[in-house]
Amino acid sequence: MTRKMVMAVVSRDQADRVLERLVAAGFGATFTESRGGMLRQAQKMLFVAAPAESVDDVLGIIKSACRTSVAVTSHPSPVSGGQASDVRTGAASVTEVGYAVVFVWDLDRFETY
Fold it and tell me: Which of 9, 72, 18, 73 is nearest to 42 (CA)?
């Protein structure tokens, strides 16, 4: 049976949800903590050795558990032409949260002991 290694770099906040869904679907998974990226934030790297024909299932689980959320926050902004103390709700800012970066590669050898 041909196997693939799926490695997903997932936000720490979402890693438990991804692991729970993978295990519930019958996939064994392990993880390690990592830190990196532009903001040097903590993530978890999840590793799943899956049969080649199940890779799309694994990717679907990861994608559904790490769906990008959008948080909208309003910041006060000064009213033009008014006094300095006048404020009103300004334009909303949109922030994307949650992500997964996934790598898939062939396993030349896979053994369990």
Answer: 9
- Domain 3-71+97-106 is of which CATH architecture? 2-Layer Sandwich (3.30)
- Residues with Cβ within 8 Å of residue 75, at least 6 apart in sequence: 90, 91, 93
Smallest CA-to-CA distance from 10 within 43, 36, 35, 48 is with 43
Q: Are strands 30-36 and 41-51 parallel, antiparallel or unpaired?
A: antiparallel
Q: Does the pTM exceed 0.90?
A: no
Write out pLDDT tens, residues 17-70. 999 999 999 999 999 998 776 656 788 999 999 999 999 999 999 998 987 656
